[in-house]
Design a protein that fits this description.
heterodimer; A: mainly beta; 22-stranded antiparallel beta barrel; 5-stranded mixed β-sheet; 11 helices; 59 strands; B: 124 residues; alpha+beta; 2 helices
Chain lengths: 923, 124
């Protein structure tokens, strides 16, 4: 069959060529009138030369050209005529001129053309995979790679430069590919795609081989001839485990060449290979295995990044702020793995477009939904079930992605015989909806909504309930190849309620809520190949309801207590410049200026200057009307980074950044309650300011399969809140009397070796880090440890992580995860003594002691179903064991009085190995 | 049909096992932090000076470890002295074990007093 097609095609080609064997040697032509229609031009050329035109009259009938040529060859005449228009021409060896609009056509067939031509005969082919989908795609890839794309209106003037822009997308579902390198090697000019997969590269006019590379995707090339500014959309294929081993090679590794430092980028594919604690990929747990990231306890998802407190991380989900990233006491994170695409963690080198938190930015982005076909995926584990659906609403224009997750733990608990467990409840759900609409090439709208609820009750006592809701709308507008803007509005709300009805007389409910509405516009301008400028403005309106305590039921004698609402407005303007001085040296400089006001309506307390803030010394109560500023803070936040390439695969980076934070979380408990208080900076509690200096060295070894990095940092923090002894944070009308103003310093070094490809991949990291606080004050009650430096409660000097995956075959993969860290500091009661007839406790200095060190090993085996292409659903099984060695790691250490004795206890949550089986499917 | 039911039961028991392990693996162990003896080697001074009649009582006890169920041991045979910044000095006598007293001490409102305690090392 293949042969027949081939001979028929050759016959036709021969017949066509027979008609035009009119040998004329003259190829030059003279065109005199200034303005000439397309038809006239064709007649003129066909009259004077042996060339014959092929074109679509519909496209050419209205075209007019103004040229004047005397005895010029046809190529330059057409070049002149078509320059500045959308017309292209191509001349084949038989003197035929093909005129097209928009793009060139190839007059020579690519090498594999006839093989491609044979694809329609698939019916004849047996089902055997001598022509698999994979090979077919390989052939198509070769075809696009050998084709020559001409960029911009054709011109003979090849002086100067042209800007090529477009987006890099995944061929299977049109998802943008973030962080892909787009570059030419000679001269070395390269850019990386942004969060929209968008790139803009300015090249000298002429022919180039454009290379495109991205982690987890197959590298590809495009032959381009640049005449001017133009667009080029690029599709990449996923690097699915192929039959033949494909070695990913990138001469210019992203980590070595990118300006970003202290930034960890994880894509969902890497994360899905890690062992699962409770049958689900959890990005927060993956992030915790990175160097410089720690947590205070097991089962909490609070991150401590480089000596920062847990509230100093800006956690963004599709640009909306997430206040509580955890479910079920922190055993799950709020991010549904099926809708996620990419996670970026900035530990240092934070660019000026981010602001509002001191230590890090965790930027989580979802996928956009499959633009090409309807599909879905899901998973079932013993505790949770999840499903996601996606597909086009209007093909090629609008896509949606819906994800839902829930527990059935309540139902299981109710079936148990243990009375305490029977009365316990623990459940959560979350929903995601993402809609992306592409109006045209220049305008795209992204909508994202998230809603979750958690509810738990232990042994029939107090019910804790919390809910996170956020939404964002983002509109991206491309002005031209060099300038685009993104306007975003976002809304986030985090609220919780604590309810107890055991004793009807004091049955109560306590509500807390923090919400914010934010808007921003960001501009990105590719000024020239050396400078990329960014700039923008943003504003956030905060609204907090810090406590509403009320009785529940008729019999309750609880006195209602409502804390005053808090309002604040934080606005910022920023500019930044990415300056590529030379291929070896690049700089980033940026500055953000933030302006914050704490706003009425509110009654605020004033204290005598210099004296300790105590309830007993409150001097005055001032009332501020609604919208009236109570306190104003402002300041510049400079950000710098430098990258210098020592060699092709090694670089040194330095960075400095200053951050300001106007909202803080106050929490003095290690208990598993979501009862943390968020507090805006006000006339008594000043905003936090942090400065970080960091330096790093990066090297890739063995043809870029191994990344080695070493980073060191020094950080100072001002106005970090810590607490007086015995501080009460809930339902406190004058919280400033329980908070002390501390300053902090942190330093550390992080070392990581990462193997990104091959049968064995994963990383090893070691971090040494110290964090100290100091609360100095002339007033004794506002000092901690007598004004000396003391360890922060999350100071954990040594931390070691190993994450490894081994692929036995395409279907079996084993992964192992090991974590070790120093136990966190704790304040211990040391002794008992008697005073005034009663026994009292003598406490150590703040954070003088440590709980035992933490160690855990997890393992999992993933088994993929068979890889037949025509299958209803693709499935995989995952068997995992969390805490393989069964070590009883301390979750918390506490003391209680029993028969005159003070007994110490250590609570471990996962004191035994926990096996889990998960079934995942995809259709 | 029979097989179906068994499968369901099996699935349910797997789920139950996993969830109960989640709740039951939580384990509470007694914990004695390794605290150095020097941190517990403390003298508790509970004293009161009555300026109206010039009487003073000082009770000296030793701090004990947390797991001690007994009452705090008294510190006996110490020398307890109240010293004024005007150079005056008053010795307190041990009344009952560990309780040191003085009566009718001339107290001046203009004077600042401090207490000096000397204990016999091996008794502490």
């Amino acid at each position: 069959m293949e042969k027949i097609y081939r001979s028929v095609f050759i016959c036709v080609a021969l017949t066509v060529s027979v008609f035009h064997v009119k040998a004329q040697n003259n190829t030059n032509v003279t065109i005199s009138p200034d303005s000439i229609s397309f038809d006239q031009l064709v007649t003129e050329i066909e009259r004077a030369t042996p060339y014959r035109f092929y074109f679509d009259p519909k496209l050419t009938e209205k075209a007019k050209f103004s040229i004047s040529a005397t005895d010029k060859d046809v190529v330059s005449v057409l070049g002149l005529a078509f320059s500045g228009t959308d017309f292209h021409f191509a001349i084949d060896s038989e003197n035929k001129i093909y005129v097209t609009t928009g793009r060139d056509i190839m007059t020579d067939l690519p090498v594999d053309f006839f093989d491609i031509g044979a694809i329609p005969t698939s019916k004849v082919q047996s089902v055997a995979f001598d022509y698999t989908d994979y090979e077919k795609r390989e052939k198509q890839k070769k075809l696009v790679e050998s084709r020559l794309y001409s960029i911009g209106p054709k011109t003979t003037n090849m002086q100067g430069k042209g800007t090529l822009a477009g987006s890099v997308r995944d061929v299977t579902n049109s998802e943008p590919v973030i962080g892909a390198s787009v570059y030419v090697e000679n001269p070395l000019i390269g850019v990386a795609t942004d969060q929209f997969g968008f790139y803009s590269i300015t090249l000298p006019k002429g022919r180039h081989e454009l290379k495109i590379k991205s982690v987890g995707m197959k590298s590809t090339i495009r032959q381009v001839i640049v005449y001017g500014d133009g667009k080029l959309e690029i599709e990449l294929e996923q690097d699915v485990t192929p039959l033949k081993e494909v070695v990913i090679e990138s001469e210019h590794d992203v980590k070595v060449t990118s300006l970003k430092m202290g930034v960890e980028q994880l894509d969902i594919k890497t994360m899905k290979n890690m062992p699962l604690a409770l049958g689900e990929t959890d990005i927060m747990k993956v992030v915790l295995t990175l160097p410089g990231v720690q947590t205070v306890g097991e089962g909490t998802v609070g991150l401590n990044v480089r000596g920062g407190a847990t509230n100093q991380n800006l956690i963004l989900f599709n640009d909306a702020v997430v206040y509580n990233p955890s479910h079920l006491f922190g055993f799950f994170s709020t991010f549904n793995p099926d809708v996620l695409k990419n996670v970026e963690l900035y530990k240092s080198g934070i660019t000026a477009d981010y602001g509002g938190r001191l230590s890090s930015v965790l930027d989580v982005t979802s996928r956009e939904g499959n633009l090409k076909k309807f599909s879905g995926s899901g998973g079932i584990s013993p505790i949770t079930g999840r499903i996601s659906l996606e597909g086009p609403i209007f093909k090629g224009k609008t896509s949606f992605l819906f994800g839902a997750r829930s527990t059935y733990s309540d139902w299981i608990l109710s079936k148990l015989h243990d009375q305490n467990l029977k009365k316990s409840k623990a459940s959560f759900y979350d929903l995601n909806l993402i809609i992306t609409h592409k109006f045209n090439d220049k305008n795209t709208l992204y909508l994202s909504g998230y809603s979750s609820q958690d509810k738990f009750k232990l042994a029939g006592d107090t019910t804790y309930q919390y809910s996170d809701k956020n939404a964002s709308a983002k509109w991206k507008h491309i002005f031209n190849n060099r300038l685009y803007a993104v306007a975003t509005i976002g809304f986030s709300r985090y609220s919780y309620a604590i309810q107890s009805k055991v004793n009807p007389v004091n049955a109560f409910q306590l509500d807390f809520r923090v919400q914010q509405l934010n808007g921003k516009i960001d501009f990105n301008y590719y000024l020239n190949p050396k400078h990329t400028l960014t700039g923008g403005i943003s504003s956030v309106r905060y609204n907090l309801a810090p406590g509403n305590y009320k009785p529940v039921g008729d019999q309750s004698l609880v006195t209602p207590d409502l804390l005053q609402h808090e309002q604040g407005q934080e606005s910022a303007i920023y500019v930044g410049d990415n300056f590529e001085v030379s291929p070896k040296l690049s700089l980033y400089g940026g500055v953000r200026f933030s302006y914050y006001q704490y706003l009425g309506a509110r009654d605020v307390y004033t204290y005598p200057p210099g004296s300790a803030k105590e309830e007993s010394v409150i001097q005055d109560t001032l009332h501020y009307r609604s919208g009236k500023p109570i306190a104003t803070f402002q300041g510049a936040e400079p950000r710098f980074s430098v990258r210098y390439s020592v060699s092709d695969n090694a670089s040194v980076k330095l960075s400095y950044n200053r951050m300001r934070q106007y909202i803080q979380m106050l929490s003095n408990t290690t208990a598993i309650t979501p009862t943390d208080i968020w507090k805006l900076s006000d006339n008594n509690i000043r905003p936090q300011i942090g400065d970080q200096y960091s330096a790093g060295f990066y090297q890739t070894l063995r043809r870029s399969t191994i990344d080695v990095s070493f980073e060191a940092y020094y950080k100072t923090m001002q106005n970090t809140p810590d607490y007086k002894n015995g501080a009460v944070l809930l339902r406190n009308h004058h919280i400033e009397t329980d908070v002390v103003n501390a300053r902090g310093k942190a330093y550390g070094a992080e070392f990581m070796i990462k193997k990104t490809s091959g049968k064995l991949n994963g990383w090893i990291s070691y971090t040494y880090s110290r964090t100290f606080l100091q609360a100095k004050s002339p007033n004794e009650s506002e000092r901690v440890n007598d004004g000396k430096w003391y360890r922060a409660s999350y100071d954990k000097p040594h931390s070691f992580n190993f994450v490894g995956n081994y692929k036995f075959s395409r279907r079996f993969n084993l992964s192992l995860n090991t974590t070790y860290s120093t136990g966190r500091p704790i304040t211990l009661p040391l002794a008992k003594y008697e005073l005034g007839g009663s026994t009292r406790l003598y406490y150590s200095d703040r954070n003088q002691y440590r709980i035992p060190n933490y160690f855990r090993v997890d393992a999992s085996i993933n088994v993929e179903g068979n890889h037949k292409i025509k299958k209803l659903a693709h499935s995989s099984w995952s068997f995992s064991v969390y805490n393989l060695t069964g070590r009883a790691n301390a979750y918390s250490v506490f003391f209680r009085s029993e028969n005159g004795q003070i007994k110490g206890y250590k609570l471990s949550i996962f004191a035994q190995p926990i096996p889990t089986i998960t079934y995942n499917f995809k259709f | 049909m029979r097989g179906d039911i068994n499968m369901r039961r099996l699935a349910f028991s797997t789920a139950t096992i996993a969830l109960t392990t989640l709740f039951i693996t939580a384990c509470l162990e007694s914990y004695t932090p390794s605290v150095s003896d020097s941190d517990v080697d403390l003298l508790a001074v509970d004293g009161f000076l009555d300026t109206s009649d010039g009487s003073a009582t000082v009770k000296l006890t030793k701090a004990t470890t947390l797991d001690n169920g007994e009452s705090a041991p008294r510190v006996q045979s110490a020398s307890v002295t109240i010293e004024g910044d005007d150079g005056s000095s008053f010795d307190l006598a041990e009344d009952t074990a560990g309780i040191y007293v003085i009566t009718a001490m001339p107290v001046s409102q203009a004077t600042k007093y401090r207490i000096r305690i000397q204990v016999i090392k091996n008794l502490l």
